[in-house]
Amino acid sequence: MTPASEASLAVPPSEKTPRTRGVSAMHFKSATTGVATKNMRNELNRLVNTVSDPTTKKAFDTEMQSFFYLFTRYLAEKAQSKELDWDRIKSPAAEQIVPYDQLPSNPDPKMLNKLAVLKVNGGLGTSMGMTGAKSALEVKDDMTFLDLTVRQIEHLNTTHRVDVPLILMTSFNTHEDTLRIIKKYANQQLRITTFNQSRYPRIFKESLMPCPRGADDHKSRWYPPGHGDLYNALLHSGVLDQLLAEGKEYLFVSNSDNLGAVVDQNILQHMIDSQAEFIMEVTDKTKADVKGGTLIDYEGNVQLLEIAQVPSEHVEDFKSVRKFKIFNTNNLWINLPALKRIMENEGMELEIIVNPKVDDDGQAVVQLETAAGAAIKHFKNAHGVNVPRSRFLPVKSCSDLLLIKSDIYSLEHGQLVINENRMFGTTPVIKLGDHFKKIAQFQKRFKKIPKIIELDHLTVTGDVYFGRNVTLRGTVIVVANEGQRIDIPDGCVLENRLLSGNLTMTEL
């Protein structure tokens, strides 16, 4: 491998400067863009040259080239102030979203042999106070997210006598953890492949220079560039070619913390019948989902719109359930030969999401990220399927965890099933306060998970502890005021109650 030279990171040809908005302002922006591009290219070449092993260096160089391309696109779009024209955004047309109940109900199970399942497994669960891979969290009956996924796919393989492999896309934060965890599945009826998504340098907001000074710099100076990196990472890791060589044609992608994302043969069959190259599962918005990305019709094309792309004056429109009735679950079905064609020919240009952060030294930094669902615009016959809410059960907080661990759900072959004694199709609304934010606190405050089969709504704030065999029904609100503590005794039944600071019980 020859040392990376200036030519290794070529600058894309600059766009002709459009003669609009004060020409001098445009020239100034183009000039500063040119300087930033050149500086970044030099810095990245310097970073590449900090790697001595030729094989590692080559892989790192490829990764930095992908980052450089994303960075130059970011600068170009910034210089042109490229934004979506809000007036051209329409709700998706009827044919762009297919209702789930219109899908075929007699799928051919042999088609499962053409399927692989990929879980996006790069998350750390830091918001819940975890330090390792989030997928290692025990969520139900002493089983982790990964255990449940393995159990589901194993059941699929043995029931239908097929070979659906599981692929885990990790990040540099979760890779070692994941490799350690999957050793225990060595004797199961399924093959597991792991690959690591890209590692990109954070950028200082002011100077637009990369934070790391060397390839081995501390991991806080790097970031995984979002699940939109899936396509690049699949290609560069060789996993895409490996799947195609095995005769796999379809890939079902979902987040590892979405417990509702199980393989659905009806959607697979519909994908085959409709010759769709890409399907996004969407579901109806509720008040809890107003920030989720949504599908839009933009000049006749179906596209993903994320809240980060919405101009601030239109954020309320975006959140409205009237105009945008559905949101993206991030359960995606991808035609693999089509993906290979797109990556080799036109490439995958996904909308850039700018994620501002503050580093450990208090400096403003920027992460350039992309979303996997944004790829929908590149594929033929791509559309959404409006699926039942049960296919979207993410665990993002301890409130979600309480629901999953409770008697509302039981497990069948690794799949969550709503308890038949639950009177309503909906699940209760649970809001636990800051005292329950971290896993360790959550576990300490519940001696045992309460029975909530007849619960509609639970709000808990303050220093509250639950005893064993507590039953909650209807609407229950528990508020411990500052400096007070509430202990709910073992065997207590609370039905339509408000408990406040001095432990007075009020009927609701």
TrEMBL record:
Keywords: Nucleotidyltransferase, Transferase. Its EC number is 2.7.7.9. GO terms for biological process: UDP-alpha-D-glucose metabolic process. Transmembrane segments: none annotated. GO terms for molecular function: UTP:glucose-1-phosphate uridylyltransferase activity. The keyword RNA-binding does not apply. Plays a central role as a glucosyl donor in cellular metabolic pathways. This is UTP--glucose-1-phosphate uridylyltransferase. It comes from Wolfiporia cocos (strain MD-104) (Brown rot fungus). The lineage of its organism: Eukaryota, Fungi, Dikarya, Basidiomycota, Agaricomycotina.
